[in-house]
Amino acid sequence: MQTIDFSPFYRSTVGFDRVFNRLDTLVGQEAKTYPPYNIERTGEDAYRISIAVAGFANGDIAIETKENSLVVKGAKPAEAADKAREFLHRGIAERAFELRFQLADYVEVHGASLENGLLHLELKRELPESKKPRTIQINAGTQPTIEDKSVN
């Protein structure tokens, strides 16, 4: 895999640290294929991440948000009963996983639900009032008038 050195950009830019840090992390990441997931837009400022977690229960999954990142971890507890089972074909992985998502500014997780083997995470972008566009009213003041003074 290719690696790209962004250090020359750090020396010649100011205030773009987050952009180059994000690019550094993207270059080093491998594409995650397990478990499969969908990201969909459900409204103007609403999103849903659906993760296929067949075989996992509520207690096996942990969801954590910190700053602008979302981490979903899943791990099955080791059970002695698994050793007694004999699989002829094992197609359901049930292996531990960790998915990381980088969230845009002001995007927050509003809920999570587990149904039919899918973990649904509801996200919403909520701009603070200070960041929302607003209209400025123009006050109509009195216009100074020029009086016509005729010379007599």
Structural notes for this entry:
The protein is an alpha+beta fold. It folds into 2 domains: 1-30; 32-80 and 90-128, Sandwich (Immunoglobulin-like). It contains 3 helices and 7 strands, in the order ααββββαβββ. The chain has a 4-stranded antiparallel β-sheet with strand order 1-2-7-6, with no helix packed on it. The longest helix has 12 residues, at 17-28. It is elongated, with a radius of gyration of 27 Å.
Instruction: From the 3D structure, determine the CATH topology of the largest domain.
Output: Immunoglobulin-like
Total E-strand runs:
7
Strand/helix succession:
HHEEEEHEEE
The secondary structure category is alpha+beta
Please, how many domains?
Answer: 2
Mean pLDDT across all amino acids: 81
Give the helices and strands, then pairings.
Blueprint: H1 7-12, H2 17-28, E1 37-41, E2 46-52, E3 61-66, E4 69-74, H3 81-84, E5 97-102, E6 107-115, E7 118-125
Antiparallel strand pairs: 1-2, 2-7, 3-4, 4-5, 6-7
Q: What would the keywords be for this entry?
A:
Immunoglobulin-like, three-stranded antiparallel beta sheet, 7 strands, elongated, four-stranded antiparallel beta sheet, 152 residues, alpha+beta, 3 helices
How would you summarize this macromolecular structure in one to three sentences?
The chain is an alpha+beta fold. The chain is built from three helices and seven strands, in the order ααββββαβββ.
